Amino acid sequence: MPQNTMIKVENLTKTFGNFTAVKGISFDVKKGEIFGFLGANGAGKTTAIKMLIGISKPTRGTAVVAGFDVQTDSEKVKRNIGYMSQKFSMYDDLTIRENIVFFGGIYGLSRQEIKQKTEQLVQELELENYIDQLVISLPLGWKQKLAFSVAMLHEPQIVFLDEPTGGVDPITRRQFWEMIYAKAHTGTTIFVTTHYMDEAEYCDRVSIMVDGSIEALDSPKGLKEIYGVNSMNDVFLKLARNIE
Questions:
Q1: What is residue 230's DSSP assignment?
Q2: Cβ neighbours of residue 210 under 8 Å, at least 6 residues apart?
Q3: Which residue spans adopt a coiled-coil conformation according to this UniProt entry (predicted)?
Q4: Which of 193, 233, 228 is nearest to 214 (CA)?
Q5: Calpha distance 24→86 (Å, rounded)
């Protein structure tokens, strides 16, 4: 795999009985790239991401993530990525500080590293006055930003974000994407799934899944030129009509 390629997927397939949720998808993602994995709910995005992070075995095909095969080296894949799930992944009944310490331990950080990361994270998110409050007391937007920061505690090469801005207000969504840009600027690869077509505009490249298949893959500008439209939402609508 080329040195600057962080994800390499070839003919990746997942079936459940007679149902094929992911149908032989192929793509690659470069170092420091913000790669958007778009599609309507039920298109197969979450099933695909579960295979890429090593928690679901592919039925067929191959995927190499951060230099490790998801079939044979799933534990090494997990240690070299960050992951923020579609549902909030912090523990509501623990404080902010306790969550950071807990996940820092899971990621194998030393006590000193956890202390330094806690101070840095709390300062960046301006949570100094709330660090010993239960996470359940935070607004959803702050919970999501905290979850993203915790997923980056161990400085992974790649972070997977599954519908990270679902349910949050537009201002918080913009702030969240500013955090994504900042991490990508340092060389972290960002793999983000979303069904918000406007968020595709923030990505370097996007793929669009329809019924388990990747039906389009290019930069937002390139896709709009291909389909002769002015927005990613129009790309998706035109693509859906063409498939019908």
A1: S
A2: 39, 40, 43, 239, 240, 243
A3: none
A4: 193
A5: 23
pLDDT (tens, 9 = 90+) of the chain, 244 residues, equals 567 899 999 999 999 999 999 999 999 999 999 999 988 778 898 899 999 999 999 999 999 999 999 999 998 998 899 998 866 678 889 999 999 999 999 888 999 999 999 999 999 888 888 999 999 998 888 888 899 999 999 999 999 998 888 777 888 888 889 999 999 999 999 999 887 888 889 999 999 998 999 999 999 999 999 999 999 888 888 887 766 5
Of the candidates 48, 150, 138, the residue with the CA atom closest to the CA atom of residue 89: 150
3-state SS class at 38: strand
Alpha-carbon distance of 129 to 17, in angstroms, equals: 51
Of 96, 83, 87, which is closest to residue 167 (Cα–Cα)?
87
User: Under 8 Å CB-to-CB from 230, ≥6 apart: which residues?
Assistant: 224
**What domains sit in the chain, N to C, each tagged with a CATH number?**
1-80+157-244 (3.40.50.300), 88-155 (1.10.8)
User: In this structure, what token pair is assigned to residue 241?
Assistant: 């009509």
Q: Do residues 82 and 106 make contact, with C-beta atoms less than 8 angstroms apart?
A: no
